[in-house]
Amino acid sequence: MKALNIILPLLFLLLAGSCKAQSKTARHQEAAASAAPGKEDVLRVYEKQIRKYYKKLEDAGMDGVLVMSNHEKVKYTDIAIELISEALRRQGFKFVDSQTARNAIKKYYGVDITASNKALQREHFRRFIFKNGNPDERFEQTKLMTINPENGYPEFWKSIIFVPNYNYITTFPAINEVVCIKGLETMFVDDYDPNLINTGEIYYTEDWCKKLFYRNELVFHDSEAALNWLLKHDEDFLRGLFVGYGYNKSAAINRLMLDQITRNPNSLADRERCENIFASKRKDRKLPVHQELLQYVVNHVTN
Q1: CA distances from 184 to 54, 82, 121, 141, 191 (A)
Q2: Cα 184 to Cα 2: distance, rounded to the nearest angstrom
Q3: 164-216 per-position pLDDT tens digit
Q4: Residue 82 lies in a domain
Q5: Which one of 31, 52, 73, 125 is at 20 to 30 Å from 153 when CA atoms are compared?
Q6: Can you tell me whether residue 117 is helix, strand or coil?
Q7: Number of domains observed in the structure of the chain
Q8: CA–CA–CA angle 62, 67, 68 (5° rounding)
Q9: What is the b/e burial string over 113-135, where b = at least 16 CB atoms within 10 angstroms of the residue's CB?
């Protein structure tokens, strides 16, 4: 009986501890699920800000976010980053872990994404700094969003932006690139009903989002389907990889570059198209010789 009096309280404590552990695990899983991308209707979360942004576009015109105040640039760019992430997710993009992302960026762009933004900027590449990131780098990012009369187009907006945490790349992360309000597709060139800003349906743009999806599919998943799509619909992106960053490991991209060479080498236009094919100055001003392309010519091109 004495032994039973000792055992029963112990069993009670064990059961209570187990219930608490299960409850804690359940709460942790619930919190993790709520923080996962795509668990919220992002368009609904940011609907008010999106409509305010389009209201601002009425005054800004085609210059858009570039001529808004610094505070507005920062606020609306933060929102655009979240919208782009959701647009990619909706199209089926699988976000990779940080090490996989680092390896992919190194493969296609030849840069170490963990380097300082000052170093990355020399190659027109940047790592996005979130609101809760390094304050000094966040401040520097804001400065580079602003038009400088001496330097012209702001550096931030002409860079390739890598977004950590989500691990994707984008260019020009502006709200009106990733989402639109129905009826305002041609607001800069045609008359429109201004009431649509407050009442029109908000939707993800198709062309811009699709291009971004396939670019990320190629870079982070080495997708053959993405490469084939880009060859048909977004050759400029592939040329940019080759000329700007020296990526010449793809036979298909090498073939694309060789197709610029015509049988009329005396034509000025043809000579300009042929520039940077066998030796191109990278964004970091290095001048690598594309040996893989030369080997491709040896293996595939005949008289």
Answers
A1: 9, 22, 34, 30, 9
A2: 82
A3: 999 999 999 999 999 999 999 999 989 999 999 999 999 999 999 999 999 99
A4: yes
A5: 52
A6: helix
A7: 2
A8: 115
A9: beeebeebbebbbbbbbeeeeee
> Which residues lie across from 226 on neighbouring strands?
none
Provide the H-helix boundaries in the chain. 2-35, 42-45, 47-60, 70-90, 98-109, 117-121, 135-143, 175-178, 196-199, 206-221, 224-233, 235-245, 251-258, 268-274, 291-300
pTM of the model: 0.78
* Cα 53-58-61 angle, rounded to 5 deg: 100
One domain, residues 163 and 213: yes
Q: Is residue 127 part of a domain?
A: yes
**61 in the same domain as 194:** yes
189 and 251 part of one domain: no
Which tens digits make up the pLDDT trace of 54-108?
Answer: 999 999 999 999 999 999 999 999 999 999 999 999 999 999 999 999 999 999 9
- The vertex-195 CA angle with 81 and 207, nearest 5°, equals 40
* Parallel, antiparallel or unpaired: strands 160-163 and 168-171: antiparallel
